């Protein structure tokens, strides 16, 4: 819908005329020293700007609701992606820890058979005598 040359009312600047619309912005020319101001479209019509044209007001409200829904869907999609990425990172961390543990694990040495030699008193005495 065309907003050009439509009369609008700003809560602070007063009455103005829409002079241009470009890239989701609306340029409004206000009376007196205020001059031309730029506003986000359609967001400005939610809080700052009003129009007396009821058909136009309904149209703008519809565009505002559609934009809010679109932004909400985008936000939900970003949240879903963030949750998936966090889960992927968590799983990757677990895998990295397992790999690190496996790589640094020392192999248990093979069990050695220990043989004890026992000596009797006679043998011990003989050894002692030989040593002297």
Radius of gyration: 42 Å
- Distance separating the two termini: 121 Å
Instruction: Determine the number of helices (DSSP H or I, runs of at least 4 residues).
Output: 3
Q: What is the helix content?
A: 40-55%
Strand order of the largest sheet: 4-3-2-1-5
Q: List low-confidence stretches.
A: none
Strand content: 15-25%
Shape: rod-shaped
Helix/strand/pairing category? alpha+beta
Arithmetic mean of pLDDT: 87
**What is the chain-wise order of helices and strands?**
EEEEHEHH
Describe the fold and architecture.
- The chain is an alpha+beta fold.
- Helix content is 50%, strand content 21%.
- The chain has three helices and five strands, in the order E-E-E-E-H-E-H-H.
- It has helices at 44-47, 54-104, 121-131; strands at residues 7-10, 14-22, 25-30, 35-40, 49-51.
- Strands 4-3-2-1-5 form a five-stranded antiparallel beta sheet.
- A hairpin with a 2-residue loop joins strand 2 (14-22) and strand 3 (25-30).
- It is rod-shaped, with a radius of gyration of 42 Å.
- The N and C termini lie far apart (121 Å).
- The mean pLDDT is 87.
Short description:
With 132 residues, this protein is of the alpha+beta class. It is built from 3 helices and 5 strands, in the order E-E-E-E-H-E-H-H.
């Amino acid at each position: 819908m065309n907003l050009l040359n439509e009369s609008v009312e700003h809560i602070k600047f007063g009455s103005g005329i829409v002079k241009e619309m470009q890239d989701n912005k609306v340029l409004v020319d206000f009376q007196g020293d205020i001059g031309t101001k730029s506003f986000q479209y359609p967001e400005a019509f939610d809080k700052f700007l009003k129009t007396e044209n009821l058909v136009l007001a309904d149209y703008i409200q519809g565009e505002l609701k559609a934009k809010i829904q679109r932004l909400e869907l985008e936000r939900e999609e970003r949240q879903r992606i963030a949750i998936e990425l966090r889960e992927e990172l968590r799983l990757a961390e677990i895998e990295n820890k397992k790999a690190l543990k496996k790589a640094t694990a020392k192999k248990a040495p093979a069990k050695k058979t220990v043989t004890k030699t026992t000596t009797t008193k006679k043998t011990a005495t003989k050894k002692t005598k030989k040593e002297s």
